[in-house]
């Protein structure tokens, strides 16, 4: 296991159910993923040390297409992560804490399905710190 921070590994950030796709993080995006993980460590502390489950971190182009991701997704450069949430309240709580911890975020969305009530939190942060502050709720 390659530790990026105390509680997050490179393998976790590149994990996929699509075992036929090589989703190895290119070294040129390593610092981006490290920055995301350092912010996640701050979130974990703010949540009282509760573990954070990652649904999706880095995605190569092939994987991003397979999961229906945007062609301009920050996942492609290791600058985004999807965080598992128990329910909408949990997603809102994590969203509020992340916005306070990292005011110069670029993307902060609660995403999910109204049909299945499955929700997750998408967090995007560009290492250059554009701080676009795009946030909202995306239902499918």
What would you say this structure looks like, in words?
With 140 residues, the chain is of the alpha+beta class. Helices cover 30% and strands 19% of the residues. The chain contains 4 helices and 5 strands, in the order ααβαβαβββ. It has a 5-stranded mixed beta sheet. Helix 2 packs across helix 4. The protein is globular and about 35 Å long. The chain starts with 9 loop residues before the first helix and ends with a strand.
In short:
The chain has 140 residues and is α+β, with helices and mostly antiparallel strands. Helix content is 30%, strand content 19%.
Helix and strand string, N-terminal first? HHEHEHEEE
Largest sheet: 5 strands, mixed
Beta-strand percentage range: 15-25%
Structural class: alpha+beta
Query: Strands across the major sheet, in which order?
Result: 1-2-4-3-5
Radius of gyration: 14 Å
The tally of strands reads 5
Mean pLDDT over the full residue set: 88
The proportion of residues forming helix, as a percent range, comes to 25-40%
Helical segment tally?
4
Roughly how many Å apart are the termini? 34 Å
Q: Which regions contain 5 or more consecutive residues with pLDDT less than 50? A: none
Spatial shape:
globular
Layout: helices, strands, pairs:
Blueprint: H1 10-14, H2 30-46, E1 54-56, H3 61-66, E2 80-84, H4 88-101, E3 107-112, E4 119-124, E5 134-139
Parallel strand pairs: 3-5
Antiparallel strand pairs: 1-2, 2-4, 3-4
Helix pairs in contact: 2-4
Using brief descriptors, characterize the structure shown.
alpha+beta, five-stranded mixed beta sheet, 140 residues, 5 strands, 30% helix, 19% strand
């Amino acid at each position: 296991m390659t530790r990026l921070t105390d509680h997050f590994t490179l393998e976790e950030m590149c994990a996929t159910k699509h075992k036929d796709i090589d989703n190895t993080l290119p070294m040129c995006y390593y610092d981006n993923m490290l920055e995301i993980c350092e912010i996640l460590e701050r979130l974990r502390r703010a949540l009282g040390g509760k573990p954070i489950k990652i649904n999706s971190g880095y995605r190569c182009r092939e994987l991003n297409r397979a999961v229906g991701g945007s062609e301009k997704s920050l996942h492609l450069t290791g600058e985004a992560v999807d965080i598992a949430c128990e329910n909408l309240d949990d997603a809102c709580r994590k969203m509020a804490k992340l916005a306070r911890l990292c005011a110069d975020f670029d993307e902060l969305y609660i995403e999910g399905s109204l049909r299945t009530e499955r929700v997750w939190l998408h967090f995007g942060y560009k290492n250059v710190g554009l701080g676009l502050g795009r946030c909202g709720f995306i239902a499918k």
